[in-house]
Amino acid sequence: MISHVVVIGAGIVGLATAQEFAARGHRVTVLEKEAGVAAHQTGNNSGVIHSGLYYAPGSLKARFAAAGAQSMRSFAAEHGVTVDVCGKLVVATDESQLGRLRDLHARGVANGVPCRLISAGEARDYEPHVRAVAALRVETTGIVDYRGVCEALRGLIEADGGAIRFGQGVTGIRDTGSGVIVTTDADEIAADLLVNCAGLHSDRIARLAGLRPDVRIVPFRGEYFTLTRDAEQLVRGLIYPVPDPAFPFLGVHFTRMFDGTVHAGPNAVLALAREGYTWGDVDPRDVADSALWPGLWRLGGKYWRTGIDEVRRSLSKRRFTASLNELIPDLAANQLRPTHAGVRAQAIRRDGSMVDDFHIERGPRQVHVLNAPSPAATAALEIGRSIADELAPAPR
Q1: Is the pTM of this model over 0.85?
Q2: What is the pLDDT of residue 246?
Q3: Which residues have C-beta within 8 Å of that of residue 99, sequence separation ≥ 6?
Q4: pLDDT tens figures, 243-299
Q5: What SS3 class is residue 349?
C-alpha cells in the first residue's frame, strides 16, 4: 500500500530515510525548519566515514556502522560525491595505553573491521610526525563530503516525486487513529506515517507527538581548529587517540579533509543553546531544559573534573595545543586557526547515563530517532533502510 510519509528533519538521517521511502514508491514530504539541507549536525561534523571500530559488538552502532561504511562509500562513488578511503591510525602514545589499544583491536575484529596492530616504526611510515609506542591501523575509514551526499539524496527524493519543504518548523503533531496530522508554522499536513529525525530537537518533537521519552537531548559543542598551510604536511591522513574510559567522548584528533585542509579537534563543552556554536549563543529555554533534567546533574557529578578541563581547553589555545601535541609534538600554537564548531545532540537518561547506542522510540505509525550521534552519518543509509523496513516493509 502506498503511504504518505512525513519526515521531520533534512539532515543526513532524515534525507536517507525519506529517500528509502520514496524509492519504494511512497509519497514523501520532508519538513525542515532551516533554509537548506544539512544545516546542523550533518553539515558541521568531521566528514569521517567510520569503520565500526569503537562500538560494542551486537549494538546498533556496530551493526549499522560496518554496513554503512560500505554503503556510504558506494553511494558517494555512484553519485559523484567526493570520497577518499584513506584509512586511519589510532595511536597509543605511552605504554599505559597498550592494553586499551589491544582491547580496541579485539572489538574491531569482533565487529568485522579490517584492522591490525602495528609497531611505532610502522606507524611513522604512515604518519612521520606522530608520537607512538604502537598503533592500530584501520583501512576502511575514509572522508566524504556529507553535504554533497545530502544534496544527492535531495535530488533522488525529488526525482521520485517527494517534496522537501524548507522553513517549516513543526509546532504540533496529532494522532487521528488512522494517521497523523502535522502542524507547521505555515500549514497542516496529513500523513499516514511519521518519522522524527529532528536531531537537536528530536525529544521535543517526540513530546509534541504525545510521547514521554525517557531521555533528554543535551547539547555539547565541539570546537575545531584548522592547521595553517605550512603545518598541513604534519598530517597525512586521520590520527586518533586511544579512547580514554574516563572521558565520555573520543577526544581530539586530526582529520585531513577532502579539500586537503587538516582539522584538529573537537573538544566537548556543554553548549548554552541547542544550536549554540559559540559561547555567545545562549537560549534561556534550552538552558532551562538542560538544567531541569536530573540526568545532567548526575552526569556532571561523575565527570565534573573532565568538564572543567574541557572548558579550560575551550578558552585556552595553549591548552588545546597541548592536547594535540600528545599526538603530534611538532605542532605549534601559531599553526592553528579557529574554524567551525559543531553541536552534538547527546541523549542523557534520567539516571545520568549517556545513551551510547542509537536510541529509537515509537508511537502509533511513528518512529522517533532520539539519539543518533557519530557514526549516524556513516550509517545513515542503513538507518533509513531499517526504519522503512519497520514502518512500511517492501512486499516480498
Answers
A1: yes
A2: 66
A3: none
A4: 887 676 778 999 999 888 999 999 999 999 999 999 999 999 999 999 999 999 999
A5: strand
The CA-atom distances, in angstroms, between 312 and each of 97, 164, 224, 307, 329 are 24, 41, 15, 9, 20
What's CA 125's distance to the chain center, in Å? 30
- The Cα 352–Cα 295 span in angstroms is 4
Do 14 and 195 touch, CB atoms closer than 8 A?
Answer: yes
Calpha distance 99→106 (Å, rounded): 11
Indicate the helix (H) or strand (E) that contains 202: helix 202-208
Residues 323, 313: Cα–Cα separation, whole Å:
9
Give the chain's residues under pLDDT 70.
246, 248, 394-396
C-alpha cell at 315: 578558552
CB 156 within 8 A of CB 37: no
Express each pLDDT in 194-253 by its tens digit.
999 999 999 999 999 999 999 999 999 999 999 999 999 999 999 999 988 767 677 899
Q: What grid cell was written down for 149?
A: 551526499
At residue 277, the 3 state secondary structure works out as coil
Residue 135: phi and psi, rounded to 5, are -155, 165
Non-local CB neighbours of 255 within 8 Å, separated by 6+ positions: 46, 47, 48, 143, 238, 262, 263, 264
